[in-house]
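Anyone opening a protein record will find just a pair of labelled lines. The record below illustrates this layout.
***
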Amino acid sequence: MFLALLIVIYISFISLGLPDSILGSAWPVMFSDFNVPLSYAGIISMIIAGNTVISSLCSSRLIKKFGTGITTFVSVLITAIALFGFSISSQFFQLCLWAIPYGLGAGCVDAGLNNFVALHYKSRHMSWLHCFWGLGAMIGPYIMGFTLSNGNSWNMGYKTISIIQIILVIILFFSLPLWKKISNNNNNLEESIKPKVLSLPQVFALKGAKNVFIAFFCYCALESTAGLWASSYLVIIKGLDVSLAAKFASLFYIGITAGRFLCGFISEKLGDRNMIRLGQGIIFTGLILLFIPTASSVPLIALILIGLGCAPIYPSLIHSTPIIFGAENSQSLIGIQMATAYIGSTFMPSIFGFLSTKLSVSLYPVYLLFFLILMIVMTEFLIKILHEKRS
């Protein structure tokens, strides 16, 4: 029963990552079809992110009322319909309208599945699940690229992704009894969980809540900024060829995906707090290498290290949430964690873009180091609470 549902959740994480990166790969064709400026991709991304934040904040109430299984099923269904809506859109405003249900569906799935796994499964699965999300995020652009290279339009790429999502909807529908059985037969916790729906003041009153939200904000700000601006930094500051820099910028994402796969084998032995510290130490090493004034392979090694360092932090922070704040409070916490994470990943890369225009792209490692140091301060406070809970 646990294994069957775990397989469903793994498939869900691949599917969750599939649409996350296809807008960027399709937009060079889409913006000319819609006769809008290239920058309008940011409008769609902001609409998706804004509604994802809203649904993440509401996730605890929805899951409390309907359960994780039904909430996930309905959310993925909404996302599949929205992706199909993208595929039949002929005007830019239609994309903006379909972006609303897309964001609303994505937020609930992310918050719900992360909390369910944190409560019911071991830490290695949290690492591997986020590794599978990375696989989905890498496969999405390949599907779009394959579609475009075979003479089809971007519409067909979106339609293909929506069909995959609909298949997942069918799988989730038939798996609904499993969710209920596992919730009723909680083998991993000593007593049954009675989840609480906490108001924002109640959440922020919990010891360490503000710290964990800032930590998630900093992590996602660091990860998204590092990935988005890596190629520009390599070209402008390190003098690499544009095409070569674009290829090597992907090393960062390869580092995250491969790192999370490897973390699954050692996370239970080291524990969440050591995994977090290990990741931060590796990121710090990578950032130090970026400060070295060379155009050799050193920056490329640095990007791999930063990706590897990012790998354990996000899964370990989520997995430790029920332990630090209590299983009954974890869904409320994780919903807000997802919201702050999306805010960090949405706005902080843009702010760096503004700073790099006014000052210099050379601020790239300094900007990342700022968020790393702030994240370390926040997580050390959380690790102290985690140590107190376990001692």
In short: The chain has a mean pLDDT of 83.
